[in-house]
Amino acid sequence: MSTPDPDAGAVRPGNGGTDAAGSGTSPVTLSARVVTVGRSAAATGAVVVDVAVPAADGPALAAQVATGNISLVVVARDGS
User: Fold this and answer.
1) What is residue 16's predicted lDDT score, i.e. its pLDDT?
2) Under 8 Å between Cβ of 23 and 50
3) Angle at the Cα of 58 (from 53 to 59), degrees rounded to 5?
């Protein structure tokens, strides 16, 4: 595993492109800095990724994460 690129991620609500309520509205996208990437859990394959966001975005991100309905989209270093 390599050191994460500080600008490599965007955090988005999951659920197939809808918001947590399933209303079909566009999901909120937050830019985030990857801080650490954990090891894959043997039983589930889940990987914990710690991210940092601006303080103003923290409450919205925490609320979305609490639903368990979130996606992490990794963007190439060149932005493509």
Assistant:
1) 46
2) no
3) 165
Above 70 in pLDDT, residue 8? no
Rg (CA), the chain: 13
Domain ranges of the chain: 9-74
Residue 40 sits at φ, ψ, to 5 deg, of -70, 135
E strands within 1-80?
9-13, 30-37, 49-52, 70-74
pLDDT digits (tens, 9 = 90+) for 28-58: 788 888 899 999 999 998 888 899 999 999 9
Number of neighbouring beta carbons within 10 Å of residue 51: 20
Joined tokens for residue 54: 């601006």
Q: What per-residue string of b and e applies to 2-32 under the rule 16 or more CB within 10 Å gives b?
A: eebeeebbebbbbbeeebbeeeeeebeebeb
**How many CB atoms neighbour CB 64 within 10 A?**
21
